[in-house]
Every structure is written in structure tokens, then in C-alpha cells.
Design a protein that fits this description.
- It is a single chain.
- The chain is α+β, with helices and mostly antiparallel strands.
- The chain has one domain: Roll (Surface presentation of antigens (SPOA)), CATH 2.30.330.
- The protein contains three helices and four strands; from the N terminus they run H-H-E-H-E-E-E.
- It has a four-stranded antiparallel β-sheet, with no helix packed on it.
- The chain is elongated.
Length: 118
């Protein structure tokens, strides 16, 4: 069965094969985000997804080996935290886009572009 990712996800729009500026503009158009001033549009930021975390002792860290399993503080299937430069801005799910992983945004509650817009 040959079904593309958009069909598998029930018709949701997936940003694929776009350069980063086009991807940001497409995302902004869908979410109603404000336009950034021209000089700010090319400022690079690091977007990461946080699966979870675990607090361990230094001794436990030293005991970690190739087959070690550390339980995280999040449940399987729970949305992941989207962070921009380390600051949480929303939640997402991991999707497969061709041969790469991607993210499907669930919400962007922490993204406040109003403070950046003139």
C-alpha cells in the first residue's frame, strides 16, 4: 500500500521539501502568527524536542553501559515539549516524513511573537 504521510495523518499539512524560511512562513500562515520585522527574520534559533529527563547520581552515570535503560519522567505516547533555545514554547508529536523524523505541532502556548512585533 503506497500512501503518503499526509494521507496517513488524515490530511494534515506536513511541511516537506521546503527550505527553512518557506517552512517558517507556511507555519506562520497556518497559525496566524505575526510577521517579524525584516531584520529579525534571519536570526537563527535552535528548535529541539524534549522526550523527557531523569535525575541520576554521578555514580549511576558512571555505571551506564551500552545496554542500560533509564526510565524518563514522561509517559510513552505523551506529547513532547518543543523548545526554542531551551525555552518551552509548545508540544508536538514525532512523525516520519520520508526517511527523516519530523514534528507535528499540537500547540504553541508558549510562543509569544507579540513582544517581538513593532
Amino acid at each position: 500500500m503506497d500512501m503518503n504521510l499526509n494521507e496517513q495523518l488524515g490530511g494534515d499539512v506536513i511541511i516537506d521539501d521546503l527550505d527553512s524560511e518557506d517552512a517558517l512562513q507556511a507555519a506562520a500562515g497556518r497559525t496566524g502568527a505575526r510577521q517579524l520585522p525584516q531584520m529579525m527574520r534571519r536570526i537563527p534559533v535552535t528548535l529541539t524536542l524534549e522526550v523527557g529527563s531523569v535525575r541520576i547520581s554521578l555514580q549511576e552515570l558512571m555505571d551506564i553501559g551500552p545496554s542500560s535503560v533509564l526510565p524518563l519522567d514522561s509517559l510513552a505516547g505523551e506529547p513532547l515539549v518543543i523548545k526554542v533555545n531551551g525555552t518551552p514554547i509548545g508540544r508536538a508529536e514525532v512523525v516520519v516524513a520520508g526517511e527523516q523524523y519530523g514534528l507535528k505541532v499540537i500547540d504553541l502556548e508558549g510562543l509569544n511573537l507579540d513582544i517581538l512585533a513593532p
